[in-house]
Amino acid sequence: LARETEELLAQMLGLPCSLVEQWIHEGRYVMGPELVERGCAEMLPLPGAPIPVGKAKPSRPSE
Fold it and tell me: I need a surface site. Which of 7, 11, 39, 44 has the fewest CB within 10 A?
């Protein structure tokens, strides 16, 4: 079941299964900026929240 869950998560995020497996087996949390950097998420500003400064930028054009 764990393998199938990893494959499903990789498919949903559009990432290689090996990368998702690596994240899971390292036992760490993957944060928003890293998902943005990988191109499977987009950083959105929250009203009243400071805008984070860093290298993470969307690698796919937004639709």
Answer: 44
Helices 2-13, 17-26: inter-axial angle, 10-degree rounding = 120
Is residue 2 over pLDDT 70?
Answer: yes
Residue appearing with tokens 């690698």:
59
pTM for this structure? 0.61
How is 2-38 classified by DSSP, letter by letter?
A: HHHHHHHHHHHHT--HHHHHHHHHHT-PPPHHHHHHT
Nearest Cα residue to 18 out of 26, 33, 31, 36? 26
Query: In angstroms, rounded to a whole number, what is the distance separating the alpha carbons of residues 44 and 57?
Result: 11
Per-residue pLDDT averaged across 47-54, rounded? Answer: 74
Q: What is the CA radius of gyration of the chain?
A: 13
